[in-house]
Amino acid sequence: MRTININGTDHQLDVDDDMPLIWAIRDIVGLTGTKFGCGQALCGACTVHLDGVPVRSCQTFVGDAEGAAITTIEGLSGNVPETVQTVWAEMDVPQCGYCQSGQIMSAVALLAETPKPSDDDIDAAMGGNLCRCASYHRIRGAIHEAARRLEA
Ligand code: FES
Ligand code: FES
Fold this sequence. Notes:
The protein is an alpha+beta fold. The protein contains 6 helices and 5 strands. Helix 3 packs across helix 6 and helix 4 (about 100-115) packs across helix 5 (about 120-125). This is Isoquinoline 1-oxidoreductase subunit alpha.
Protein backbone atom coordinates (compact mmCIF):
# COMPACT_ATOMS: atom_id res chain seq x y z
CA MET A 1 0.00 0.00 0.00
CA ARG A 2 1.33 3.41 -0.99
CA THR A 3 0.11 6.83 0.10
CA ILE A 4 0.41 9.63 -2.41
CA ASN A 5 -0.76 13.18 -1.97
CA ILE A 6 -2.51 14.69 -4.96
CA ASN A 7 -3.78 18.25 -4.84
CA GLY A 8 -3.63 18.25 -1.04
CA THR A 9 -5.47 14.97 -0.51
CA ASP A 10 -3.83 11.71 0.57
CA HIS A 11 -4.76 8.64 -1.47
CA GLN A 12 -3.94 5.12 -0.31
CA LEU A 13 -3.23 3.00 -3.36
CA ASP A 14 -2.78 -0.73 -3.54
CA VAL A 15 -0.43 -0.63 -6.53
CA ASP A 16 3.11 -1.59 -7.44
CA ASP A 17 5.86 0.97 -6.83
CA ASP A 18 6.72 0.95 -10.51
CA MET A 19 3.26 1.93 -11.73
CA PRO A 20 3.65 5.12 -13.78
CA LEU A 21 2.18 7.99 -11.80
CA ILE A 22 -0.10 9.00 -14.68
CA TRP A 23 -2.12 5.80 -14.31
CA ALA A 24 -2.54 6.32 -10.57
CA ILE A 25 -3.70 9.88 -11.23
CA ARG A 26 -6.04 9.08 -14.11
CA ASP A 27 -7.28 5.52 -13.64
CA ILE A 28 -7.29 5.14 -9.88
CA VAL A 29 -7.83 8.65 -8.51
CA GLY A 30 -9.92 9.66 -11.54
CA LEU A 31 -8.30 12.99 -12.41
CA THR A 32 -8.31 12.95 -16.20
CA GLY A 33 -6.95 16.43 -16.92
CA THR A 34 -3.45 14.94 -17.14
CA LYS A 35 -3.09 13.49 -20.63
CA PHE A 36 -1.19 10.51 -22.01
CA GLY A 37 0.78 11.07 -25.18
CA CYS A 38 4.02 9.24 -25.87
CA GLY A 39 4.60 7.39 -22.62
CA GLN A 40 8.34 8.00 -23.02
CA ALA A 41 8.91 11.48 -21.51
CA LEU A 42 9.08 12.95 -25.00
CA CYS A 43 5.90 15.02 -25.42
CA GLY A 44 5.04 16.66 -22.08
CA ALA A 45 1.30 15.95 -22.27
CA CYS A 46 1.43 14.19 -18.90
CA THR A 47 3.23 16.97 -17.01
CA VAL A 48 2.37 17.40 -13.32
CA HIS A 49 4.22 19.11 -10.48
CA LEU A 50 6.12 17.21 -7.83
CA ASP A 51 6.82 19.67 -5.00
CA GLY A 52 6.36 22.44 -7.54
CA VAL A 53 8.75 20.99 -10.11
CA PRO A 54 7.32 19.89 -13.47
CA VAL A 55 7.81 16.18 -14.14
CA ARG A 56 6.57 13.74 -16.76
CA SER A 57 4.11 11.52 -14.96
CA CYS A 58 4.46 8.76 -17.57
CA GLN A 59 8.07 8.25 -16.46
CA THR A 60 7.66 9.07 -12.77
CA PHE A 61 6.62 6.15 -10.64
CA VAL A 62 4.29 5.85 -7.70
CA GLY A 63 7.17 4.77 -5.47
CA ASP A 64 9.09 7.96 -6.39
CA ALA A 65 6.11 10.20 -5.70
CA GLU A 66 5.37 9.01 -2.17
CA GLY A 67 6.01 11.83 0.30
CA ALA A 68 5.87 14.54 -2.37
CA ALA A 69 3.12 17.05 -3.02
CA ILE A 70 1.72 16.16 -6.44
CA THR A 71 -0.23 18.86 -8.24
CA THR A 72 -2.27 18.22 -11.36
CA ILE A 73 -4.04 20.69 -13.61
CA GLU A 74 -7.17 20.25 -11.46
CA GLY A 75 -5.29 21.35 -8.34
CA LEU A 76 -3.66 24.53 -9.59
CA SER A 77 -4.52 27.54 -7.47
CA GLY A 78 -3.06 30.90 -6.61
CA ASN A 79 -2.11 34.03 -8.48
CA VAL A 80 0.30 32.60 -11.04
CA PRO A 81 -1.85 29.64 -12.15
CA GLU A 82 -5.03 31.71 -12.22
CA THR A 83 -3.36 34.43 -14.29
CA VAL A 84 -1.91 31.87 -16.70
CA GLN A 85 -5.26 30.14 -17.18
CA THR A 86 -7.08 33.46 -17.66
CA VAL A 87 -4.58 34.61 -20.29
CA TRP A 88 -4.66 31.20 -21.98
CA ALA A 89 -8.41 31.48 -22.41
CA GLU A 90 -8.43 35.13 -23.43
CA MET A 91 -5.73 34.59 -26.05
CA ASP A 92 -7.33 31.40 -27.40
CA VAL A 93 -4.09 29.47 -26.98
CA PRO A 94 -5.49 25.93 -27.35
CA GLN A 95 -6.53 24.42 -30.65
CA CYS A 96 -7.49 20.77 -30.09
CA GLY A 97 -6.43 21.21 -26.45
CA TYR A 98 -4.86 17.81 -25.93
CA CYS A 99 -1.40 19.09 -25.01
CA GLN A 100 -2.60 22.11 -23.09
CA SER A 101 -2.77 20.91 -19.51
CA GLY A 102 0.87 19.88 -19.85
CA GLN A 103 1.70 23.22 -21.43
CA ILE A 104 0.02 25.09 -18.59
CA MET A 105 1.76 23.02 -15.93
CA SER A 106 5.14 23.85 -17.47
CA ALA A 107 4.26 27.53 -17.97
CA VAL A 108 3.12 27.91 -14.36
CA ALA A 109 6.32 26.32 -13.06
CA LEU A 110 8.37 28.62 -15.32
CA LEU A 111 6.64 31.80 -14.12
CA ALA A 112 6.83 30.73 -10.48
CA GLU A 113 10.60 30.37 -10.86
CA THR A 114 11.29 33.11 -13.43
CA PRO A 115 8.75 35.95 -13.22
CA LYS A 116 10.03 37.74 -16.34
CA PRO A 117 11.16 35.00 -18.70
CA SER A 118 13.05 35.79 -21.89
CA ASP A 119 12.31 33.96 -25.13
CA ASP A 120 15.30 31.73 -24.35
CA ASP A 121 13.91 30.98 -20.88
CA ILE A 122 10.58 30.05 -22.47
CA ASP A 123 12.28 27.83 -25.04
CA ALA A 124 14.25 26.07 -22.30
CA ALA A 125 11.25 25.53 -20.04
CA MET A 126 8.68 24.67 -22.73
CA GLY A 127 10.85 22.82 -25.26
CA GLY A 128 9.75 19.42 -23.94
CA ASN A 129 6.05 20.19 -24.38
CA LEU A 130 5.05 19.32 -27.91
CA CYS A 131 1.93 20.59 -29.66
CA ARG A 132 0.85 18.92 -32.87
CA CYS A 133 -1.46 21.89 -33.53
CA ALA A 134 1.61 24.15 -33.41
CA SER A 135 0.25 26.59 -30.83
CA TYR A 136 3.82 27.54 -29.89
CA HIS A 137 3.53 31.14 -31.01
CA ARG A 138 0.41 31.73 -28.91
CA ILE A 139 1.96 29.92 -25.93
CA ARG A 140 4.98 32.22 -26.05
CA GLY A 141 2.75 35.30 -26.28
CA ALA A 142 0.54 34.10 -23.44
CA ILE A 143 3.52 33.50 -21.15
CA HIS A 144 4.81 37.02 -21.81
CA GLU A 145 1.34 38.47 -21.23
CA ALA A 146 0.89 36.52 -17.99
CA ALA A 147 4.29 37.80 -16.83
CA ARG A 148 3.23 41.37 -17.61
CA ARG A 149 -0.01 41.01 -15.65
CA LEU A 150 1.71 39.38 -12.69
CA GLU A 151 4.26 42.17 -12.57
CA ALA A 152 1.63 44.94 -12.60
S1 FES B 1 3.04 11.02 -22.18
FE1 FES B 1 4.52 11.61 -20.78
S2 FES B 1 5.90 12.84 -21.90
FE2 FES B 1 4.52 12.07 -23.39
S1 FES C 1 -3.47 22.26 -29.03
FE1 FES C 1 -3.62 20.42 -30.17
S2 FES C 1 -1.83 19.31 -29.62
FE2 FES C 1 -1.56 21.25 -28.74
